Amino acid sequence: MDEKLEDKSNISLTDLFDVGQLQRVQNAFSDATKVASVITNPDGTPVTAPYRFCRLCKDVIRKTKKGRANCFYSDAVIGKQNPGGPIVQTCLSGGIWDAGASISVGGRHIGNFLMGQVKNELIAEDELIGYAREIGADEADFAQALQEVPRMSLDEFRDIAQLGFVIANELSNQAHQSLRQKRDIVALRKVEGALKESSERLQLLLDLNNAIVSNLEINALVKLIPARVRAVMQCDSVYLSMPDEGGRNFVVRGLDFPGSKGYLREGAVLEMFGSEAGRAFAEGTARRCGTEIKGQNPNVRRIIFGEGFRSECLIPVTAGEEKLGVLHLSDTRPDRFSLHDVGFLAQVAGQIAIALGNALKYQKLSDTRQRLADENSYLTREIQSGDRFKEIVGDSPELRKVLAHVSTVADTDMTVMINSETGTGKELIARTIHQLSARRDRMFVKLNCVAIPAGLLESELFGHEKGAFTGAHERKIGRFEVADGGTLFLDEIGDFPIELQPKLLRVLQEQEFERVGGTRPIRVNVRVISATNRNLEQMMREGQFRADLYYRLNVFPIHVPPLRQRQGDIPQLVEYFVGHYARKMNRPIRRIPPAVMEAMVRYEWPGNVRELQNLVQRAVILSPGDELVSPFAALRELEAMLPQPPPEERLVDVERSHILQVLKESGGILGGENGAAARLGIPRTTLIYKMRRLSIPRGIGGS
């Protein structure tokens, strides 16, 4: 634009452009932004018909002498030649915004792109109506017309004014080209093609602006943008190179390449180092490349040779200081991209940056909102799921040994595996490790691996993307993301499906995973504590549990002895539970008879602390006075229901023998009308639980 042209003193917009074309560009801008616009000569006379002008300006304000004078003054201000950017002007005492961008050729001002008639959202309408009195307009008519004027913030209007400035610059570029080619008919025909291209390019800018306004879904944007750019630029391939989580590689996003031979693929990971795209990204400058491959990394060379590319154009996409990626155009023709193309694509990249920046902020906000909702929901379920005792009760040597292990490992980030029988308080031990660790201020999240169907466990643990499977209507944050920075407790890890174990192993090794249906790796910082009552070493030998996963989980094993091996803790536990439930049920219990306490200490407690807790709760319910009633009548009822064992047999042995006998009778079948669970009169899940507790292997009793 700095080159001075001859015979340009009498050049006007109508000499260089078809008015109908200018009208279409102007109207498309107004339809996209909902802002009034008009293209004028430098003296303010309209070249196009004003579009979306509000009645307030033309029928109310301009009907008064003072109003017309103010409008003419505002038009004169925003109609000045200003190559540095749009001029934003306020009128109506700061209540209405207008803006203008100049159109020039060879340094000469030949027209204006004016836009505005937008209310300042910070100014009350009562203040604006007061302006009617200043100019002598009818206040009622003024107030009614004011309702039709759009309202927005200054930042929103500046973004729209910037788009108008980009359009004015593109018109200036085309005016420059048109003037140089005006001297003969052949040149004029070329102008028609250039104007057509300009119209398409301007339409692309408007389309991108519409995308900014209407689309906050990042995946939809990265698919839409390259397709629109390729259609306008008429090149072979367009995609966005976006940095991965680590910032060392590009991920190919939104690839639009109908003629691909397969070397360049959607989702491909390309190393930044040793690539022209990486240099454009790092330096923030556009690059045009030919077939030179010197200094390019092997992956890039393979793609260039394989696809037959002979020219590339690489435009960095940045929003302020944030680097979002690179707009990557490729073609099999040499010297396909001109400096003019680079300038236009830089404007496109500016619009893309706004769109992607807004979408990324929206995605982060949505993820944060969902994570907070998930945390709130999780904590609510935790509170409602039952009693939560914050203390580990007991002082036996066996328990002190366990707590010593807890103190040793808590301050580290090592994985811990808690091994014990059902009902010994594995979750309480895991919570204590978390509370003593540096992660105590973040989430403690638990997941019972046996309580969730295998088909849903992957989604529950790792989350899923919208549309990943039937019924996945929204993105879901998994337990690993909820626990980020904290601790994840995996109870019943022995029941973790073998087909999902490699994915769990990857998280333990790399602290990285993808959601179900996702391709973007998600990094987390989670400590994993697992628990089981099963013999995982035997399961490894039988091929039911991966050895590498076992060793990752079992870095620091903690064995919690069953209650029968730490009888010294029983009196304290009984007193603790009696006090807790007495307060909860408003019972005046102050004394535990020695005979009752002695019976509880002698009892084997096959269900461990959980059985003791439930039995004490039942005893408190049955105790109307200040003395605890013995709860062992319920146990005697259970014993009466079973075949009488020899005197030396324990209740747990009798129960095991009885289940084995029924399994033999059912041929090893657990469920169904004639299965062992139906014969025992208990649910199938209860039978499976009892078999695990009693170390009865699955499949026993079958032929």
Task: Give an overview in words.
Keywords: Activator, ATP-binding, DNA-binding, Nucleotide-binding, Transcription, Transcription regulation, Two-component regulatory system. 48% of the residues lie in helices and 15% in strands. The chain is of the alpha/beta class and 703 residues long. The protein has four domains: 13-210, no CATH class; 217-361, Beta-Lactamase; 389-561, Rossmann fold; 642-703. α8 (185-214) packs parallel to α12 and α17 (501-510) crosses α19 (547-553). The longest helix is centred in the middle third of the chain and has 46 residues, at 339-384. It is elongated and about 115 Å long. The chain starts with 12 loop residues before the first helix and ends in a 10-residue tail after the last helix.
Keywords:
single chain, alpha/beta, 48% helix, elongated, 703 residues, AAA+_ATPase, transcription, 15% strand, Sigma_54_int, disordered N terminus, Beta-Lactamase, 6-stranded antiparallel beta sheet, Rossmann fold
Furnish the topology, listing elements before pairings.
Layout: H1 13-16, H2 19-33, E1 36-40, H3 55-60, H4 65-78, E2 87-91, E3 96-105, E4 108-120, H5 125-135, H6 139-146, E5 151-152, H7 154-180, H8 185-214, H9 218-233, E6 237-243, E7 249-256, E8 269-271, H10 276-283, E9 287-289, H11 298-307, E10 311-319, E11 322-331, H12 339-384, H13 397-410, E12 416-419, H14 426-436, E13 444-448, H15 454-462, H16 479-482, E14 487-491, H17 501-510, E15 512-513, E16 522-523, E17 527-532, H18 536-541, H19 547-553, E18 556-559, H20 570-585, H21 594-602, H22 608-621, H23 632-641, H24 651-665, H25 676-680, H26 684-693
Parallel strand pairs: 4-5, 12-17, 12-18, 13-14, 14-17
Antiparallel strand pairs: 1-4, 2-3, 3-4, 6-7, 6-11, 7-8, 9-10, 10-11, 15-16
Helix pairs in contact: 2-8, 5-6, 7-8, 8-9, 8-12, 9-12, 13-14, 17-19, 20-22
